[in-house]
Amino acid sequence: MASLPYYYHSRPKSPKPNSRSFTATKSRRRSFSVVVLLCMSVLFYFYHGGLQKREDDLSTAAPHSLSQTLLGKPRKALIVAAMKGDDTSWLDEHLSEWERYIYVVNDPKANLTVAKNKGRESNVYLTYLIDNYDNLPDYMLFLHALRYQWHNEDPMYANADGLPMIRSLRLPHVAEEGFANVRCTWMLGCPNEVKPRLDSTTAGADEYSRVRVEAAYADAHRHFFPHRPVPTEVGAHCGAQFAMTRDKVQERPRSDYEMYRKWLWDTKLDDDVSGRVLEYTWHIIMGKPSVHCPDAGDCFCEKYGLCNLNCAQDHCEKRFHLPQYATIPFGWPEYGPGQDGFPEKDWWL
Hints:
Blueprint lengths: L18 H40 L7 H5 L5 E7 L6 H6 L4 E6 L16 H11 L7 E6 L11 H4 L3 H6 L2 H7 L1 E3 L27 H16 L17 E4 H4 L4 H13 L4 H9 L2 H4 L10 H9 L45
Parallel strand pairs: 1-2, 1-3
Antiparallel strand pairs: 3-5, 4-5
Helix pairs in contact: 4-10, 8-11
């Protein structure tokens, strides 16, 4: 019968084993211990080194969950365009399961910022995609900094709270679409917010924003997509807040995003115009048609799981109320509902 390895043998029954046998056994045990320690050291080196590299690659400025990475869960990140003084504490308090990349555009000393404060939120979004192109998370949600905004489509606190929207977002829908605006109501942006001026005429600075955007849009579109005809109509949900997948982003090379940002940095257009041009270009960049206005009922059902709403094609009842001003009153939500076109609290009940 083949003998067992030495470490399976019983200890000798003799109270006084001969010194030679004892020395050999001790030597073998010492050798085995050295081998075990060496193996453990190698494993620890690769394990710890791999984790540290992974952590460094993600971001030293944005907290994230390594446990999700280790458990094989999809990575998801919030990319936030903020101004100095914006209260972003709600992101850390309520959304700790998301990686959080908060760019403070007017603070050069912030952990994350932009090289040029131009073009509003699209500058932040493009900077993130360029800088993290090779290490993007599975899902990305691009947002403005404040929790309460007039274009948020949840009726709680008179349709201004962004938190329920994020918590209800169905990532399988985002995975299927690749790109999904967070809004569903067509007002504003759909069905044809922008009608590019194909004759390349320009608008004066005193003309209102839409005319100036339409005058600039055609030239920008030709620059971005030189092999495509300029559309006669462009429609998408307003707000410039949307979700994307890594796979969809990487269908384009990094150089495309660098080109979009260079245009944004170099253009002589005012920020409100250049930012609006990009706001109504993101869906095209992500492969959607120039008019991308999904049915509101389907949108709420598939994107948020709200499938029992009373809907028309362009809206669902008691989901969104357009206020008189595009500014949330100071002290919201304790102060402001019922004023300036904002409905009363619980108006949707």
